[in-house]
# Entry
Amino acid sequence: MAERVGLIIILAFLLVSVPLFRRLLFNQTISAKIQLTILFSIFAIMANMTGIEIDANNQLHNKIILTAISTNDSIVNARILAVSVAGIIGGPWVGSLVGLVAGVHRIIQGAPLQGWFYVPSSVLIGALSGFLYHDRKSYFKVMTPWHGFIVGILMESIQMLFILLFSPTGWDLVKYIALPNS
# Structure
């Protein structure tokens, strides 16, 4: 999983070196927000598709691209990373819209009927991370790695809480993902 998250981070790092993208980061127009939403939605969909499938017995199915999964299986992925970064960079509206796209894509991918919670959890995470940006307009420019780590842990904890409360196999899945080897 670290390898797959690393690929997304490398792509984002390369993207930051593109002057057009750097201009989008500090542009507050509706056009810039739409472009950021599209861009980060692509990253969120990539995160869903490059995740690792886990079956009901906590067995990993290491496929390269996950276009569809069994309705009984789950995915360990970096969707929340993409949604959180979208919110921090683009604000609450961009984060929420990217969360909506990411959650709907996860359901299309094969989430069970009980998987509806992926949509509100992803939207909430996008909005909350966006409010961090929105309250401190210049904060993104000086966000420390420690603060980024705390925001990441908080957003992932929200996702784990939703899984725990709304997934039929919530405790087993949270225990397997968030508390490995316990």
